[in-house]
Here is the input.
Amino acid sequence: MAAGEVPIPRIPESLMAELERLARDQERSVSQVLAEAVDRYVKEEQWQRLKSYGRERARSLNLREADVTALVEESRREYGKIASADLYGRFQHLHFPFNFGGLPDEVLDLARSGEIRIAISEFILQEVMRVLRDKFQWEEAAIQSAGDLMSGFTEQVAPTRRLKAVPEDPSDDRILECAISSDSEFLITGDRHLLKLGSFERTKIITPAQFLAIFRGGARK
Here is the structure.
């Protein structure tokens, strides 16, 4: 074996036959199919480790799911001391899977498996990472890993419209801008100001539970 090479275990004949069939069906090589399978496995392991890490951080800080909204709003006020309020937004359900799991985690699992498409903007991603750092006291390596994983299964958009649809909380307009710019059918949130709108243009604004009920109902048809 040459220096630097990694030994590959023998693949059972039945599994190799299935790999070859998949490769033919997808017009790819067996090596490409194997590489994709390994990549998915590694990312799944990383995702599960991050969730375990996040739950442990939340427990050590004695934080509950009900605290998330207040923590995000607190971070927003603190960040507002050094940046204009219209430069950032809120997407609190992206914090839940890492620290608490639950229904938001199920929604993200659908995106990770390619069953749905989730759009985020740069400021949403940066806010998630900021809250994980400042309020859940995550280490930088874990924060970077979370950002990389989220970027890998979401569609990042750069909103081109500026909205003023939520007078109670103008930062929520940044979330609407992301949804509208990506032509999203649903905006999934727990934010009371956004949920009060019900919809905006062609985008329906619903909770994770409502979305999962719609998705599962459609999947059964």
About this structure: The longest strand covers residues 203-206. The CA atoms of residues 198 and 205 lie 5 Å apart. Residues 81-93 have pLDDT under 50 and may be disordered.
